[in-house]
Each structure stands twice: as C-alpha cells, then as structure tokens.
Design brief:
5-stranded mixed sheet; 12 helices; 37% helix; binds zinc ion
Amino acid sequence: MNPQPPAPSLPSWATWRQRPFPDANTLLLHGRQPALVDSGFVGHAEQTAAWARAHAGTVDLVVNTHWHSDHVGGNALLQAYGAAIAAGAPEAEAISRRDPGCCVAEYLDQPVAPYTVGLALDDGQILRLGDADWEVVRTPGHTPGHLALWQPEERLLVVGDGLSDYDVGWVNLALDGLDAATTALASLKRMADLAPRVLLPSHGPIPADPTAAFSTALRRAQRLVDDPDGAVWYGARRIFAFALMIRGGIPADEVEPYLHARAWLTDAAQLLELTPEALAAELTATMLRSGAVVLRDGRLHAAADHTPVAPDALRVPYPRAWPAAAPPR
Ligand SMILES: [Zn+2]
C-alpha cells in the first residue's frame, strides 16, 4: 500500500485545528487583526476560546461559514471577550431580528448560546483576516447562507460543510426546498473552479489531493440531486448521529419518543411518505445495522469519533427566547 501523501502546507500565519464532532474544525489567522473561522460547539466554547487566545492572544473577528451549532457555539464567549462576529448576509439578518429559525437550532434540537452579528457578508466582499485579504464566496446549499473563504495568493479555500475529504454536506430539503441539492451542486462546482492549492473543510482532515476531493464530492452531490429520498435519509442520519453525540447517547427506550417529537423527523417522514414512527424505527434499525450507531450500557451512541459534552452545556435557550440583539457597533 502506498503511504498517504502529506497534506498541502499552510502558511505560517494560519493555524489549523482539526476537531472531532461535535466541533467543526477551526482556522486561526494571525496578524494585526487576528481572526477565527468557525468557533465549535457551545459545550466546548471555553476550550475554543482558550486555544485561540493561547495561539493568537486576542481574536478580533470570528467569521462563521454558516450558522449550524458546531460552527457558532463559541461565538457568544468570544464576543464577550471582545470579538466581532461576521456571517453571511441572510444569516446575519435573521440573527439580528432573532428569527426563531436561527441556527436551525430548535428544528435540529442543537443548542447555541445567543450571539449577535456585527458584520453581514456578501458575495465578493474582501475581508482582512490576520494580515491577508480573503474573498467571500457565497456557497448556498448546505444552508442558504453558507459561504466559503478564498485567499487567492496562497490559494487557500475554506469550504465549511460544502465538502470534506470523504463526503459532501447534507442538504435540508424539507426546510430549504427540493432545489437545495441542485444549489449545493452548483456551489461545489464554483468552489472546484477556483482550483485551490489547499482545501480546508470543517470536518475531517485537509485533503491531500484537492482535485480528487472535489471529484468525489461532485459525484456525491450529483447523487443527492438525482435521489431526493436518499438525500433525506442522509440528512436524517447526520442529524440523529449528532443528537446522540451531544447527549452522550440516549437511553435505548427513549430514542423513539425523542425522535417522534422532532420537527426534522416529522418533515423527513412526510417527504419519504412514511409515518414518523416508521421512519424513527427504520432510521434506528439501519444505523444499528451499518454500525453508525451502537448499543452500549443501555444507551444508543454514535459510533463516529466525538468529544464528550457536559449535559449542563446544552441548557441554553432556543433563539426564540434569546434576548434582543444589541444594535450594531
Ligand atoms: Zn453544517
């Protein structure tokens, strides 16, 4: 077997931190305006902030690729320490008006601590992060407000959940419409056309071969377009696994009642023309069979590598109960 080729190297002013679930990977950009791209899950906000401060001293700006809980969970704490938060315009506006759908937190049952966004980002906008200029590239699909960040001199591309070394981001056909998969595919093509030297995904390692990662992702994204039912199943598996991870598993006899009460499951069942009960049972059974979920000590656990979360950390209000946003500075 050939040894894995090494990942392409990053410039000295960029520090990458690969993190297991439930935290997205983090990129710290050093310089006169230290910046952090994505801030992990709320349960690990202290570690995220401590790591960023240890490496950069202060963080002036946090940029979110999108508002899912594993990317924005450290925002509140970093903001309390003085960082500004930047996010794609549609998400920034929804956060400012405290839309109950913010972060898809309630829908997905994924807690996020309240934060405000001071800088709404549009396509083509140039952002100074650290000492380098980055271009905002709107890449809707995984969420409508998803963005990538492009650094043309070093040819670095932060892709968020657009793709990873092994997969593409799931798409939310129930909330974002059946076109979401087509939108995600178009965004993926746009990112591939930039031909980055280094591709920085939010989950898993930096791909050794960005071109190969894009061709795998494009095939996978095309399948999500061609097979909407498959796309719904894929999303359901990802959401359920995440729910198990942040709760340290769920007691086996509570799993089905938990699932039946979830909006995402009810919507997925409707798209698949199943009852919520049938979908919950089939989802659990297929994930146990594939080994994605395991039964241990009377609880169902996600099998994928993940870091434990303290139960107290989940006790944050859903966005509908967040305090009003402070006016922009
Ligand atoms: Zn995401």
